[in-house]
Amino acid sequence: MASRRLIDLFLELARIDGLPGKEAPVANYALAFLKNLGLPAQLDGSAAAALSNTSNVVCRVGGGGSFALLAHMDTAFLTSGTTPAVTPEKISAEGKGQLGVERAGLAAILYALERAVNTNLPLKPFTVAFTTRSRPSMAGARHLAVPEGVRCGFAFTSSSDPGAYTVSSHGLANFSADVLGRAADGSEPEKGVCAISIAARALAGLKFGRHDAETTSTVGTIAGGSGPGTVPLAALVRGQVRAAQAEKALPVLDSIKAAFEAAAAAGGGAVAFKWSWEFAPYSHAPGAEVRQLAEAAIIGAGLRPAPEAAVTGSEANLLCGRGVPSVNFGVGARNLQTASEFILTEHLSKTSELVLNLIRK
Prior knowledge:
This protein has ten helices and 19 strands. By secondary structure, the chain is α+β, with helices and mostly antiparallel strands.
């Protein structure tokens, strides 16, 4: 069972409103908490780049060390109006609102730090980072100033049970196809080149959906035209490719590009095709340092390591993409972004124990 102090800390954090881009109250709380412990917490100046009203909170303990602990500060919905129901086994909102269980990782890290400082526990050097705007594209983590010596990262945002950690993750590539035709009035359509028809011809010849067990593609939005009585000048197509391996995403993206270019050439128009990784996939071999450190901390907390493959991205993807091998730990948050959110007190406690095992000498 979790200590009363840990539960109270989680409840304090959970009731602070901090929508994506509006995390300042959460950042202020975390800054004050860390400074009260005598730790060198500061904002990293990323607010403007991340489009938030505050920056990431960064605390370099002992100079920053060789690893970083991460949790994000935002929640998808307002939480201050929810009255949590607390039992010895579970913290929930009883279906009456958003509880804010996404802050479990944040609470677990802060409690471990408080416990370590108050008991004079010898600590390794390390960095703590609480990031902004995990939605829609993990902008805070994307613009995080990672200390030069950090060579491993540990995020605490997965909804899996404590003991689980990601050893691989899908990547997500966004693509855009901007088709240019020639506008004309509907009374003289032969003078125009229909951009929408070009886009439709390209899409009709492509396969979207599941390509294999680990690779999918979707077209999310199509826009174009200015009215029913004109030949449309432009059509804008947006989509995504998800893959566990970058080399599997590239042929899909190439085929989409080729289809649009062929359709534009045949229809007398033009197309500008672009794509980029929102976050790249990653995979860690069994003997990788980041896995060894993760499993040692999990075992030290009395848990059984459960390596897993993630199909969604996390802060770990962004750190991996910047050359810092990282994993995402399960914190046990359940039914995220619903009125049925809850977390078991045992999971909250075990997550904090795991943090403590990472940072203690």
